[in-house]
Amino acid sequence: MKKIWWKEAVAYQIYPRSFMDSNGDGIGDLPGITSKLDYLKELGIDVIWISPVYKSPNDDNGYDISDYQDIMDEFGTIEEFDKLLSGIHERGMKVIMDLVLNHTSDEHPWFIESRSSRNNSKRDYYIWRDGKNGAEPNNWESMFNGSAWEYDETTGQYYLHLYSRRQPDLNMENPEVRQELADMIRWWLDKGIDGFRVDAITHIKKLPGLPDMPNPHGLRYVDSAAGHRNIEGIHDFLQQFKKTYADYDIMTVGEASGAPISEADRWIGEENGAFNMIFQFEHVNLDFGSDGRWDFGPWDLAKLKQIIKKWQTGLEGIGWNALYLENHDQPRSVSRFGDPVNYPKASAKMLATFFMLMQGTPFIYQGQEIGMTNVVFNKLSEYRDVEIYNYYRERLMDGKDVEDTMRRISYRARDNARTPMQWNDSVSGGLSEGIPWIGVNPNYHDINVEQQVADPDSILNYYKELIKLRKANEALIYGKYDDWLEEHPEIFAYTRTFEGRMFLIVLNFYANHPELEIPLELRGRGCRVAISNYSRPEQLNDKFKMEPYEAIVYELNPS
Ligand code: TEU
Ligand code: CA
User: Fold this and answer.
1) What φ, ψ does residue 437 adopt, rounded to 5°?
2) Which 8-state DSSP code applies to residue 455?
3) What's 112's DSSP letter?
4) pTM of the model
5) For 428-451, what is the mean pLDDT?
6) Choosing a second label site near 264 at 20 to 30 A (CA), which of 58, 64, 278, 527?
7) Rounded mean pLDDT of 245-261?
8) Which CA distances in Å does 413 have to 83, 220, 387, 392, 416?
9) Is 67 among the catalytic positions?
10) Which residue in the list 46, 106, 199, 385 is annotated as catalytic?
11) C-beta of residue 111 within 8 angstroms of C-beta of residue 126
12) Using CA atoms in the order 234, 239, 244, 249, what is the torsion angle rounded to 10 degrees?
């Protein structure tokens, strides 16, 4: 396996609206990010991924882009971006930008032209179709609920939008579109950025003929076949994009919902893969109910073990994992997989140990490093996400129970991850001196950066230690992953092995005291406790009871 900088990096995702506000308008911005670079450096971060900061009417908080080569007014100017970029580089860190290729905003000049007449030169930049029998061209549904088609009176045709109706899908079949996007990519790379996180990339190719799908409703967010997800031929497009950045030393991560591991070589193969790594979704889709994403159910440790094993051992020697538990689209991990009420600290540290020490590049999402939790909003009007309003409307139209709908929203809302970063105990948690664009989680009095910096036992300081540990030990970066105790109902255990060195990671995922029995093959060796969220003696007993949400990392002596 090749050694390379982005495999050794620890990444941190910033959702700029909610990170740090510099001018009191309640909205995080670029100078705000610049003012927190020392915090990130101190944490041990190497690569910062910034969610979209381009010009946008903010129907989907910047994922609807109206100018790819300019900065959103609320976030600042291109000069402020350049300042941020040099601030990052001066500190020896790198930055990757969000690259949204599947769609633009309906306010992008291409779309304004495209919708103006059927003969416009940009008409074919988007996907226009006639209606069928007075209805939509096909039965596809938007990922944000409702039909994926919007009728446009001016020209009497429908356009396709897999996300909100204000995010028309680009027609990737058109070589001019691909050329425009490639030019834009090079423009950013020539500016000196260090790579991309590529948005919703499995959707850029649509099934030729755009046929009806058997179960369009069930397809939302579920990693199964759809007329617009991982369609044959997508790799021709991806390889073409790859050529545009072949001569830059960058890092690329594709957001690749529905890319199967059987195609790992084409997606992330070391030589010919489209990207360096992909975000896969299986472990964060674990708590879907039978009705899909909005219908949540209990998650199953046995299934989590299977999924992790599949990706950890399945990519060995083929490609590299992107490791994550959170991002701006997911509920907070302590609220999902831990216990934010009884064991907020222990469970947040356990989850950190779990995902940060596997094979791959870890991505920490802002606030995860202090154990931020889901928010409780009681009124619909407290939410900001377009997706929630679409869902709510559809449920009401279907005559569904309001209370049940609100319960589903409060669990699954993407806004759970988008509340203001909790910097300190001052009004609104320190995001802004003004009123934040979305309500702060009232638990900022107890959960905030300032207090955790001062507390040696905090989640934040644990993350720092964990990052140091990972960086100091190649076994924790390049080491082979093996799973242990496959059948254990409560304990997750794995080892990382490299050039004669071995780490054993044991994790209790529950609030119980399960008995840990060390597998015979791993017994009888001396060890040191490399890190742990309780205090543990420097010896590995063959059998012992674990504490609630305990995490222990042993470095075993060579056998
Ligand atoms: O998300 C894409 C997205 O919604 C996936 O998470 C989804 O599960 C998958 O595409 C279903 O196959 C990205 C961004 O992260 C999100 O914030 C945006 O709203 C979205 O694209 C549209 O740009
Ligand atoms: Ca601001």
Assistant:
1) -65, -20
2) -
3) H
4) 0.97
5) 97
6) 64
7) 95
8) 34, 15, 9, 11, 6
9) no
10) 199
11) yes
12) 120
